[in-house]
Amino acid sequence: MLLFWRQGYETTSISDLTAAMGVTPPSLYTAFGDKESLFHEAVERYAAGPGNANAVFAEGLSARETVDKLLKGNAIELTRAGRPPGCMVIASAVNGSAASEKVQGLMRERRAAIEAGIRLAIQRAAQAGELPADTEASALARFYYTVIEGMTLQARDGAGRKKLLEVAALAMRAWPQ
Question: With contact defined as beta carbons under 8 Å apart, do 92 and 4 qualify?
Answer without folding.
Answer: yes
